[in-house]
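Contributing new records

If you add data, match the layout below exactly. Sequence lines come first and carry their own label; structure lines follow with theirs. Keep one chain per record. Anything else will be rejected by the validation script.
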Amino acid sequence: MKKEGLNNLSRRQFIKTGVVAAVGMALSPEIKGAEMSHRKKAPRGSAFTVWQIPSHTNTIGNSYVFQTKTGKVIVMDGGFPEEAFTLRGFIGALGNEVEAWFISHPHDDHMGALWEILKQGTQDLRIKAIYHSRITDKVIDAEPTEAGKTRDFYDRLSSCKAKVVDLQQPGQVFDFDGMKLKIVSVATQLVTNPYNNNSMIMRVWDKKKSMVFLGDAGIECGDLALKGPFAKDLDCDYLQMAHHGQNGCSEEFYRSIKFRACLWPTPMWVWNNDTGQGFDTAHLTTVRTREWMDNLGIKEHHVSVRDGLWRLD
């Protein structure tokens, strides 16, 4: 495989790499032996439970499900269209109703499961509200391979039964039974690394824990958030690593905020930068990011391919 520049890996190349890696890693004992549930004891006063949902196709994807103390379900992203069936079943087990669905940005490894559900028809699944930050036509067209999917997704949002809210100003705070969710940043309309740099950044917290979700934020998106009015909200207990932990926010970004644990929505081939030739032999930057975390003294890591269905109460 021809080695690409670390900072010039296109989305198409990233996805193609994933397909190759999925075939090569499908029978990996490390993947098959991954623990499918990891639960922590619920702290007194906790307002919500969150699950980091692993990919069932060994590919990139971002998927988190929250349930409040009264049973309300909130979904963040959801992963590729291929994840829709299992995600729908997971939601069904929680009551088949989604109070709010937040989409960080319209790449199909983030919005794809919801996109597929909207294509199929929600049927007995009730989605009350969908929140996103719409990107402009200029940004859509900056990634031609994604433009058609994005426009179709937006068309389906406009015709679905759910309330659809386009968030264009940061700072809005939602309260779901004591689970707070704040929009730290919205679509920037940058055309550099366009879709990733238009990721919404979201903070979720209750009295016992706090989490920040960076989506696929790139260097420019992260830097703008650091300079923005809600920079202090980037400090948290649990931080979702930008762009699956590779080629996302800068080292300076991670050094500039306070956090104690990392969430990695990351398959094995990305975690180890290994597409079949051995550890850290491909063109991803995950191992470098892992070294940054080591240098910061971060000891707690929740990697979706290792932890399986990781749960935090």
